Amino acid sequence: LSYGPVTILFLMVCLSSVKGIWQGKPCFPPPVLTRSNKSVQWARLLSQNPKLVLSLPLYTEYVVSRIPLKKIFVGLVATSLLVACGDDEDDQDNQSQDPNANNQTVEPFDEDCTTTVEPQGDAESDRIHVRTILDEAEEGDVICFVDGDYEFDDRLSVRTDNLELRGESRDGTRFDFAEQDSGAAGIDIANTDDFTLRSLSVLNTPGNGVVFREGDGVRFTDVAVVWEDGPNPNNGAYGLYPVESTNIIVEDSLVAGAADAGIYLGQSTYGVIRNNVATENVAGIEVENSSYVEVYGNEAYNNTGGILIFNLPELQRPEGDNTIVFDNHVHDNNLDNFAPEGSGIVGIVPAGSGILVVGVQEVRVFDNTVDDHRSVGVATISYDTLGFGYDDPDYYPHAERIDIFDNTIDNSGYDPSALASELIPFEPVPEIIWDGVYDEDVDVEERQNCFSGNTDSDGDPVSFANLGADTDEGEDPFDISDFDCSLPELDFDVSHLDD
To answer: Which pTM was predicted?
Structure first.
């Protein structure tokens, strides 16, 4: 075999470099090869296997017929000079000096990682690097991030179906958006189906933490969204924020510091919120204008309000129903409301609220532990009671066919906030409140609310008040007999979400 003239020429140039020979280093660094630089992938193969250069002439015709002359020149230079002037160890050292080459040497921590990423050292580099990877992602990819601090000065956007972003560990893989100066969310996933975010933290976003909108199929698993300076009206409104979507799971996650709702599921159908921790938010967990949702196994504490199930007017989806709330621990939600001015209904949630059901129909609340709330343990309220006006002919404001049963409720209503005192003219406030507002044109069986089997931790029945009782007619607001009933189980199934 014989070398071509171009190869011989550059061998001579390299060998004439005294500095290169003396230091035992390549005359030029190897090319940086990326997905967008596929035309010189063959050069990497040869640079990693120098002996293959002996067969280079056999490939000359193939290369020349397919690769532009300029790229042939680059590939030959890289390959020939690496063989002449460097060894394998020096080659690796030079590649590691290029920050854009980091991901080519990062070991994946899970077998199914298709791309493995590590921090680049500053917010601009991290943003450019991760955005490039997201832009080039393909359906089915699992993009893995090794533990470390990733900083971003702008949002990250996802528009690829069937994609997973996975951190090495929730506490160790940290996406910090403190330097973000544009974008309404830290991570924005839109018009995308079958997305998973797993085992990482999203920190200090000026806007919402993680938004999933107008998609079908999302799973947030073992994710933290935290504002590290604690509750502040300047924090982002929502932590984990799936909206206008279907088939949603939020599980095993932590949200702290949201100026509206920590975990929010809104204007959506089929969802599960389970085994999460929500703390130091205005609303710990909120389900709004949504249907067929299960909320269970969560802990909500040190928020303004623990769990909120709302229907609000003037939204794209006018109705919400069929929500089940069970096996949650809702306690010590006595944080002062820090929602910024103009936040709407969440801005008037009384500090010290356990579970609030407002303006929604067909809700079941059972087997929860609700304790230590200064204003109210559990309340069922018509939106009209709050005094907000609205212009929405499709909106129905009353909370109807609500069944609150078999909950354990302790130590509530001992120091009600000003708003709670305005709405509830009793002190201490009973553990369970119904405002007594309903549509008189609706038959009783179609609007019946039930409150049964609720006790304190000693097994004694808890107190109840019907704020709509006509005391002038001799009605006793504390008489629960007309509401000591039960409603049928809600007939819907979300088991397909775990398939």
So the answer is: 0.80
